[in-house]
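---------- Forwarded message ----------

FYI, see the Serine protease Do record below. Original note from H. follows.
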Amino acid sequence: MKQYFLLTIIFIPSVLYAQSLSDLYKKVSPSVVVIETKEKTENTYGHASYMGSKGSGVLISDQGEILTAAHVVNNAESITVIFHDGQRVPAKVVRLAVVADVALIKLIYFNGNYPVIELGNSDLTDVGDDIFIIGAPFGIEYSLSKGIISGIGVRQSRMADFTFAEFFQTDAAINHGNSGGPMFNMKGEVIGLVSYIVSESGGFDGIGFAATINMTKQLVIDSDRKWTGINGILVDQELARLLNIPQSSGLLIESVVALSPAFMADLRGGNIPLHLNGQKLNIGGDIILEVNDIPIVSENSIIELIKSVSLMDEKERNSFKLKILRAGKVQEVILKFLNE
């Protein structure tokens, strides 16, 4: 009898935990979505082709707003959200923060038939806490993986007291297609968005990262930042010399999403592939030198720009003066944003 009692004490917690995780999955999974995108690419001859990809996301409002990873939607010509019952709804980007890899998209129409997820407080999460992730790894939709918080990391500017991003490290399995999917605590609250993995094999090696939900709120939910449709990179001094940029740096535009504000301003991406120091770039497009007379020469100049924009009123934020380098000539372009 004593042996039976001890076995009962030992095994009951694991059974209750399994039931709890199963119940949580059933509760929260209807708020998780699959995101299909199509991205346009051009070769050096100007011939266009379209590439499809898949990621994940989570419904956060009864207005049809969805959180996902920035790299899932940043270059997308079209975005389609797929719910657990198979309903497909087109969506558009509202805002995103590439450096933190988080984005807010919105359904073109929403009937309100799906539950909105609850967002947690990621500041209350500690290393060692249990978590689980729902996503579509390798296209396997609504797949569940579980693990723990292995670490917490913050990316800050090297020369300014400015936080760009905050990430959870986890050992929960993350693979292609999980990107943008929600990370949950054991209350069923979203505490992070799956971002990327560190891998030598090309698959999951036990080190994955998710942007914290509190940083996500700050950057794309509570913020009024604009989506430009630009995919670009801040060039270093070596590349600036190679491209004959008349200053120490600039923002190289690699691609522009069709019908985005940047596209309407006639900003142009590149179509000439360049491999430099192990990095693949598309050159030949415009290079942004200044925004509203602020030179884009370093990470800190971008921080200065962000701070100046935060002091503008809504009307001022609808139009920006850009100085660009195009085909060796400096030009001015006005980047405009339409009110929603």
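H. also flagged this: The chain is about 20% helix and 40% strand.
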